[in-house]
């Protein structure tokens, strides 16, 4: 049975792997298709995304590891981690749909669903461990920003 630190390391590695794989979809069009889009004035420079996402994936992994360490046999832990897994899947799907398939509208629908799942994940993480829940707040805020950005790009194009 892995200890708490091992579970955190495994969870961080999973989150970073998802981020790395999502990056392939992003890289496929960030220097081509994405440069041709009209973007709002608040669109950050492209270089900012990789470091921000790296920090967020690490924080997400730490949070998930803390929850997992409480014991997967607990119903609340299972529920929290199921929500976490689904939101992580949608997180990856957004990159694939937005950048890979180049479909901002469909990506917008995914990111709105992702926001709901992040909120539910935070709710369930808070039941298990408040620190784990608070570690997801920057992620929630960044995805709120990304949602506004996604909506603006869809509207402008």
UniProtKB/TrEMBL annotation:
Pfam families: TspO_MBR (PF03073). It comes from the Bacteria. Keywords: Membrane, Transmembrane, Transmembrane helix. The chain crosses the membrane at residues 47-68, 80-99, 105-125, 132-154. Its main location: membrane. It is a multi-pass membrane protein. It is found in: Membrane. Belongs to the TspO/BZRP family. This is Tryptophan-rich sensory protein.
């Amino acid at each position: 049975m892995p200890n708490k630190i091992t579970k955190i390391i495994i969870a961080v590695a999973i989150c970073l792997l998802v981020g790395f794989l999502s990056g392939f979809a992003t890289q496929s069009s960030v220097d081509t298709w994405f440069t041709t889009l009209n973007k709002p004035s608040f669109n950050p420079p492209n270089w900012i995304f990789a470091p921000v996402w790296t920090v967020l994936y690490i924080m997400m992994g730490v949070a998930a590891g803390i929850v997992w360490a409480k014991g997967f046999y607990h119903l609340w832990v299972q529920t929290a981690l199921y929500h976490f897994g689904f939101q992580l899947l949608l997180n990856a799907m957004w990159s694939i749909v937005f950048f890979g398939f180049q479909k901002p509208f469909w990506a917008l629908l995914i990111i709105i669903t992702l926001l709901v799942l992040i909120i539910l994940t935070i709710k369930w993480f808070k039941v298990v461990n408040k620190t784990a829940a608070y570690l997801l707040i920057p992620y929630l805020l960044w995805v709120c920003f990304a949602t506004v950005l996604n909506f603006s790009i869809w509207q402008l194009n």
